[in-house]
Queue: 2 jobs
Job 1
Amino acid sequence: MSDVPLRIDGQDVTVPEGATVLEAARSAGVEIPTLCHHDRLAPYGGCRVCVVETEFRGAWRLVAACVHPVEPGMIVRTRSEKIDRIRRSVLELLLARAPESAKLQDLARRYGARRDRFAPDASFCIHCGLCVRYCAEIKGKFAVGFVDRGIHKEIAFVPEIAARECRDCKECFELCPTSYLQAAFVLAESFAFPPPGERSGAPGPAASSGETR
Amino acid sequence: MARLHSREELEQLRREILARRDPGQRCIATCAGTGCLAGGAADVVEAFRRELAARGLTDKIALRGTGCHGFCEKGPIVVVDPEEIGYLQVTPADVPEIVERTVLGGEVIDRLLYVDPQTGGKTVREPDIPFYKHQQRLVFGANRKLDPRRIEDYLALGGYRALVTALFERTPEQVIDEVKASKLRGRGGAGFPTGVKWELTRRAAGEPKYVVVNCDEGDPGAYMDRSLMEGNPHAVLEGLLIGAYAIGAHEGYFYVRQEYPLAVENLGIALRQAEELGLLGKNILGSGFDFTARVHRGAGAFVCGEETALLLSLEGRPGEPRPRPPYPAIQGLWGKPTNINNVETWANIPRILNDGAAKFAAIGTAESKGTKIFSLVGKICNTGLVEVPMGIPLRDVVYKIGGGIPGGKKFKAMQTGGPSGGCIPEARLDLPVGFDELTRAGSMMGSGGMIVMDEDTCMVDVARYFVEFLTEESCGKCVPCREGLRQMHRILTRITRGEGREGDLEALEQIAETAVEASLCALGKTAPNPFLSTLRYFRDEYEAHIREKRCPALSCKALIRTWIDPEKCRACMLCLKKCPTGAIDGGKQRIHVIDQAKCTNCGTCFEVCPTKFGAVRKLSGVPVPPPIPEERRTVARARKQDE
């Protein structure tokens, strides 16, 4: 594979053909924020917080750095008033869903995003798909997946698989940027498998932690 | 029919078919498209079959169920050839009379003809009906002349001649050059030059290559692809075969929505017939070119009309768009170079090969060539499918072809391009139809939906409605589309309920910019169009809703009150009897009054109040006048008697 030269924020960078703009930026020490990206997973392009501008026929256009392949001679900038404005807007939309997420709050501080810009509709899941993709691509278990579409889209465990596979894995928990998954799974587990001696009518978060772990 | 091994055998078969046909023969052609079938066309055809059999005429009079004619407002449609006498809204009860008087007697039955709503004049020949007269039906016109289930009909009209030209007289590169020279642009919406797309796929590295027909038509109210697919499937197949030859593909897929059962059925029949004749399969007509085609039924997700989502769905994966690049021309179905075009795009190809690129490019504007089929629906007299040359002013479509707005109402806006298109106001009605023209006006061509709205339509509510559709149909993968539409819908709903606040428009504009700029696919990038275009042309309506809590179109229920004008009420009891909530007080000769606490603004009283009285009114932004004192509630006529 041949090398592709490009310029990111004024820096000349050379990366292998097929690399993404995000990979090129990171190799040059330029930081681009991400939420749905993971180095071990296939690029997804869902959260759009990694938007950058590339020059195309004299005009700047917005692309998602995590999925956009590098092109020879490409000119990229990773900060501009517009980029910051879009990132802020994306973060504000997500904060309406997961206002307590530390990762979102940290990015919100950097981009001046307001927690209360939009009406809250907290579900604590931002649909980054990290758990779903990790379970499918790395573990090959398909224990968690998306259900429905559009604004009704949610993640859900497949009970038949989750009951068999998840107890000793839980590797997706630490990937979750909003801790939603951990909370939901622990809750579900506490309902499904109350520890001996506990009355089935009174499950609580503490119930599962004292169990088989 | 026997398999054909050469172009000569195809021409021989065509001559045989034509020799058996008498152009002067009487033929009863009934539209058997989905619209007319829903109106009872199958019963009409059956009645003709029985009537002809009873009179022993089965062998003398041809009976044909054709593709959709387009004037769906007036279906079921029957045309008696060779005179092309057009009968509308025909029922089985009309059949004996049509056979007796028209088919045998050569007489015209007046009451079944088209009546001009303005002049009252009648039109005898179908092509002379104003709805058809101002159209240019180069692609869609054949529908009316053939039975989509008989390949002989398509061959009789010169079908598969363009394929022969491509296979035997042109190199693949020459075919691509011809399509490029025609300047045909994709009819699915984006308007990408078709020839350029073909060339990219042909030159892309990787084998095998695939060709795909996108018949996942999802826009509410749009059905031109369905009517082409079910009404003339061989034209689409011939276009696909030519494209496959040019691109170097030997396998193709028709992606048709499951909700189009007749299209799936007729396409299946067409493929079997083409295969029998050797127009599909190995060594087509002895040319050495092989091609197979399969039908895939889509499960009805709007987003699967987006090409990358369609291809993933075809592979059996969730129909969610993936980022481009790489484009399908480079990496498409199963990672191989794939050329995907819309139904109407493919159906244009045979014509370009037959008539030449120059003739095609002679029609239209500088950047948009040929004709385009639109589905004209909404508040319009003549609902149906229309095929017009690019460049025709929207005004002509609305008034000359569409016959204007029913009920003497005023035109307000035309929504083009499907749910993520935009609204064009009266002031821009002289806009010529074209890809770039519509985009510059804040709307888009889309796949060709045209929804006409009259003065009673609230533009804020229109934006809310389309955004609501898109919240359900978004795949939900990327944040600007999923979360942006969720918030947009919430704010727009609040505004139509009279709960709008200062800052709402700025919030909507912020979301719109984010969705347009940062969404993953075209669905999200265009989703804010209904809001942006209505804000651009009807900002005063947004402001009236937010600041004055007033709906200028008197449409948003939360912002209107229904009131009976005591000066006009004649105490006829009609509204009082029909009111579903018992909110109207009154009696014979006692002026009716609406109890505002009980009224739900359902509009029933408004509709039943006789036009000559016009006493029921909708009020918005003004207080409801207090009820008149009891002693003045006796109607004027009775008062005179009392005095």
Note: Confidence is low (pLDDT under 50) at residues 638-643 of chain B.
Job 2
Amino acid sequence: MELNEIIKPENLVYEKPGLMNENPMHYCPGCSHGVIHKLIAEVIADMGMEDKTIGVSPVGCAVFAYNYLDIDWLEAAHGRAPAIATAVKRLNPEKMVFTYQGDGDLAAIGTAETIHAANRGENIVIVFVNNAIYGMTGGQMAPTTLEGMPTSTCPYGRNIALNGYPLKIGNLLAQLEGTCLVTRQSVQTAAAVRKAKKMLRKAFENSMAGKGTSVVEFVSTCSSGWKMTPEKANKWMEENMFPFYPLGDLKNKE
Amino acid sequence: MAEDVKLMKGNEAIAHAAIRYGVDGYFGYPITPQSEILETLMAEMPWETTGMVVLQAESEVAAINMVYGGAGTGKRVMTSSSSPGISLKQEGISYLAGAELPCLIVNVMRGGPGLGTIQPSQADYFQTVKGGGHGDYRLITLAPSSVQEMADFVGLGLELAFKYNNPAIILADGIIGQMMEKVVLPPFHTRRTEEEIIAECPWAAQGKTAGRKPNVITSLELDPATMEENNIRFQAKYRKIEENEVRYEEFQCEDAEYLLIAFGSSARICQKVVENARAEGIKLGLLRPITLWPFPKEVIKAYADKVKGMLSVELNAGQMVEDVRLAVNGKIKVEHFGRLGGIVFTPDEVLNALKELIIKK
């Protein structure tokens, strides 16, 4: 069969989302961010909200998220994305507004902004990528780092006596009256990706329906920070992260 | 038609002016001596009249970042606080300057350092005009000396902020915030429509419409050559502001042999000092910088050729006096007189200081 024959709309099984541009991603091989970016791009396009979506990117590995998705963005100071998104949405209620944050951004330096935006029930989506480590700065301990898990600032493993417990911020957010959806997903298999996309779409729909704050936590890998191959990182995540951060809906108000 | 004269506090005037100047959003956190701004806005409920959003944030940090969010979408937004709260806002202020976002900040100063006191002070001059946050940036700084100017500078501050895509700040103090005076409030301006915002702020993150590139509000640039270009662009803008936006007021300066330099509430006290001095035969004038940045250095430099000495009168340990000395450049004697920690000087104290520090020597 000629190439021209193959490239026909009826043969199309997969394509890059239209909102994703040609900029080469800076993410490491095996990183979960790329897949999560793709899902956001697909959901925005599926909803036909390309011209009405405003993203708020964090400080962390996803600081340059604005380089990959062709929508309007605001780049936040570290941890402040939910405060920024609060004003963007309140002043532009017809727009679809989301933050994209890592565990250090959302659950350490930005805990106050996260809790209070969620507690006010801001009609925004919080996309939370939890890989239990500070990836961008080179693999330091995060609030979500598991007990015994080594990082560059807990080289002998997280010691509870010294560093306290890993923070289940998702469970905390689910307790707040302002959240309508808090769900924990992953993207390491095709089935997981499909399920995650469904929940992401629900979150964005909630934000436009004025139901309150939706949080989609992605339990993710950081093969560079964890110092593992992408394949090993996925396996390690399933064996170690999932038992402590079990997948599924923590809250799903109908 | 008779003017609509009202009697109110400076803080209340700020709130009423914000509604009337068509502000889209105010984000604040309570702190003495400026809480009446948020209280007045909440009592007025402008969301039911002009559509203005008013929100009490969980912290000053959150409030300034809400300003960043609103300003990034091209809206007219503002926040207010007092000294310790303004310290907390410095991170956000630096980001606003770095992303070139227009907005209005109000600091109703109190005595520091630390938690300090709730009494009035002017000790945040350095913080405001010399930086405060990190990086090479400037804030357009307006210093009101009356309740009327509290109201007027809301409009002026926003006008300048949008003219230059730069944060502007009203640097008031506890006296101006708390005292009641007559004020003529501005007429109601309607808030801009979405179309007007897009026309005025084509850079705003308003949702990417077909046919244009994405608008990204950011202060981040990892390539040092580009980051230097950004900084050079900021500096060129600051030079333009210095050239065009200097504002000051002269009070009995024409025949003056000595000058007081004072801003805000200090300038009000110094008006009395000038009257008292002239009653004693001392030819004293007062120069009141209205913009603290850009600082009226050229006019002060010119007066250095006409007068014998200058006294910089401030409610601090000597901050603006450094800028006065830079302008005068050693030509004549420049001294500072101030009270600290929330104590306000009397006209007699100032006149005595003038005699001791400038006239006798």
Note: The domain at 5-194 of chain B is CATH 3.40.50.970 (Rossmann fold).
